[in-house]
Predict the structure.
Amino acid sequence: MAVLNVNIDHVATVRQARQTDEPDPVWAAVECELAGAHGITVHLRQDRRHINDRDVELLKKTVASKFNLEMSLAEPIVKIAERLAPDQVTLVPERRQELTTEGGLDCVRQQRRLAQVVRRMHKKGILVSAFIVPETDQVLASAEAGCNAVELHTGAYANARKDRLVERCLDALREARDTAFSAGLIVHAGHGLTYRNIGPVARIEGICEFNIGHSIISRAVLVGLRRATEEMIRLIQSPPE
Ligand code: PXP
């Protein structure tokens, strides 16, 4: 059965809005775990716009489920990951001006650097996932670079409005899953997933982990983080028709 990692970056976004010490992402991680989340995901960005060094140090010590660190291939961040040794890293592209991660990591163009980073993470016993658009060449390049998993970018699916486009996006995800399986990769998915659009993606067999942030944190403002997490787990594990 597929599991949920809650991305708690935006708890830190609220804290940083006032540059204070609340809400604390470490407390948020505990709430998500109490609700049954199988993992906690954070993105330590180079500009530290939300999650910071203190957060990742404490989360490494306190997360009892899976600690998944999203990160770019930038050397200072790679060094932090080596020292921290989270359970999993998800390698993502990163641009300073973007509001959120745009597009997938270009594993074809960056294959040499990717392979280097993968080797370094493996030396520390860290599972490596690459966040990629659902395209054959990206899946194959991730496998060749030695990744254990790919996280298929669901942003295009989430943004699609017309039924035909939605179906095409779902086909692309299913095809990428098949290619990933034949290359021996584990398949995750995430980005732009919400309580409304999770159903059809959750029904794709073989996607074993979802990373979801903005929608859960948004709902948590109104219903609380524990309930918001529980509701998303229910939708992932028993997707409505
Ligand atoms: N997966 C990856 C690799 C991401 O970069 C993000 C955004 O930080 C997410 C999942 C979560 O996306 P969202 O906040 O849209 O649920």
